[in-house]
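In practice, a research group might receive sequence data for several interacting partners and want a quick structural hypothesis before committing to experiments. The following worked case mirrors that situation: the sequences arrive first, and a predicted assembly follows.
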Amino acid sequence: MPARKKKKQRAPAYAVSEFTPARLSIYLRCLKDLEKSGVKTTSSRDLAERYHLNAAQIRKDLAYFGAFGVRGVGYYTSDLKAHLRGILGLDRPLGIAIVGAGNLGRALADYQGFHQAGFQIVALFDNDPDRVGRQSRGGVVIRHSDELPDVARAGDIDVAVIAVPAPVAQAVVDSIVATGVKAILNFSPSAIKVPAGVKVKNVEFTISLESLSFFLAQGSKANAAPNKIL
Amino acid sequence: MPARKKKKQRAPAYAVSEFTPARLSIYLRCLKDLEKSGVKTTSSRDLAERYHLNAAQIRKDLAYFGAFGVRGVGYYTSDLKAHLRGILGLDRPLGIAIVGAGNLGRALADYQGFHQAGFQIVALFDNDPDRVGRQSRGGVVIRHSDELPDVARAGDIDVAVIAVPAPVAQAVVDSIVATGVKAILNFSPSAIKVPAGVKVKNVEFTISLESLSFFLAQGSKANAAPNKIL
DNA sequence: TTTTGTGAACTAGTTCACAGCT
DNA sequence: AGCTGTGAACTAGTTCACAAAA
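A structural hypothesis for the assembly, expressed as tokens:
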């Protein structure tokens, strides 16, 4: 056997780009907008021009999941929208639990954007006895964190939102993962670890702000780069 | 002149990756943590192991801004931290104005993470007369949006945070950009447009949630991909 | 003719691996 | 010996450009 020198045998790879799901979400938002405006038919070019996207990328992103267009015509707005909802798993109710009922947690519980996008706030948890039993401005009752496993095991929690202080975030995440929750939206400024099979999305205000500060500080030096949507 | 067929003459390009500023922010967070633990010296390998980063990437990211290490030794914690603060422009006070005093805007005004990271909330604006004059839970007074230009022109606003409903976001952004603000943190679910030279970072809860939903829906099919920090 | 869907070409970003310094 | 800083190799992601379909 000829010893090939560290030739790398590759796994099949993920094919779909890390950013594709986020872009699909944007496309869906665009289609909702078009539908509201009464536009029955669109095309990758039309979408690209209206919303400052790239036509080829739209087609590539969609191509991974199927062929939803009609050559020479484009896409039927409501048809493509339905496909995207399916791909994104939004064609069924999604339950969200928020852990941490501080300012941020309560604001998130009342945030209308979640409801508008079809997500349901299932519960708001905190371990501070002074908070338990009270409710958010919008009327979401704060329950004790001890109840989380019961709610989770009832299968009502699809996504757990972490809105606790950074020092306790990892412990909270560990207990949530133990109940079988597979998706976490983390608002705490800490790099949490989860086992394979659990997906985490970090929403990092501080990092975003510091990146902006960087661009202010560096000025035109490092950055004539265009703003990206993501 | 030999007609070269669409040979592309390239601009110098941006050299530093789009994600580098965000990673620098993470490195800074790590260094703060190390300093608090009394660790005087570290290395790219040490940082990578402790915080699950990539040693080569840390060195590459830093290399763009200078040579801050000592060969054979590594980096002096407080020294590298100071350099990063300088690169990120955090060695001076940064003023933040929040526009939109709904649940989210008020929660952001009270969010301790901003203060901890050295940002100063300069003002909280809203155009609803019922809100103007009242204050957030944490005591930040809500001022009328009409006052924004005065505050901005006084030079107190480095970053404007957009926490208004999507339909009015673009109009609000336009007026802010007109006052000379160069950095915007956008929490509204809308693709806002700004002129070149203005930097926007979008914080999209809905997109993050829908991406999580995607991974739940697709299951192991499309995604054995590891969780990224960013 | 128009616009999709897609291989091929290209660009950006990451990781390797090692020369060079301490 | 150990670790940085960096060109080179590699991988991922984007855009081009065109054959195929309606």
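Before designing any experiment, note the following. Chain B touches chain A through 77 residues (CB under 8 Å). The longest helix of chain B spans residues 20-36.
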